Amino acid sequence: SMMAPMLVRWVRPAYAMAAAMVLAAVGFAVLTQLDGASGLAVLVAGSLLLALGIAPVVTLSTDLIIGTAPPERAGTASGMSETGAEFGGALGIAILGSIGTAVYRGIMAHGVPNGISPEATASAVATLGGAVAVAERLPMQLGAELLGIARAAFVQAFELAAGIGAVILIVLAVATAALLARVRLTNAPTTTGPATE
Known about the structure:
It is a single chain. By secondary structure, this protein is mainly alpha-helical. It has 7 helices and 2 strands, in the order H-H-H-H-H-H-H-E-E. It has helices at 4-7, 13-31, 39-68, 74-111, 118-126, 128-137, 140-179, and strands at residues 183-185, 194-196. Strands 1-2 form a two-stranded antiparallel sheet. Helix 2 (13-31) packs antiparallel against helix 3, helix 4 packs antiparallel against helix 7 (140-179) and helix 5 (118-126) runs antiparallel to helix 6. The two termini are 26 Å apart. The model is unreliable at 187-197 (pLDDT under 50).
């Protein structure tokens, strides 16, 4: 985010933001490759790319929003920008999290091994944490089987949510490049306000 103002010396903000969104999408795409063998390395790499891509978008979009407002409305514009960013982040987490949860529960609803009580099955189907708690109370072989199924279901759900996130970011990158292509920051790198040609 500290380098974002320097980027717009050479690249229009729309293109810088679109490129950053593509980088974040690559981060999501890396997260779709998560598995038990390379889990931590893939998780760290994907999360790093995602964070590196999102940071300039936040900085530049805030600069563009505040820069378009008249000076007497700069505080309001800043507040709206922050509120929009927080709402968008929360909404994205809620939507992708809900999709992931639905996929996990759908897989688990048909994957729980026989020999587990209905109450324990409901707990295992609800969340991965519930499945871990149930597995600890079961005989070793049955618990290991349940845990393996639950982990696989969680990974599949996570990968799908990451894939959807990647697609959304690519669509947003294209829309940003198209809709804001003529907008530029007049005083980069201090980014005091945008102008159009």
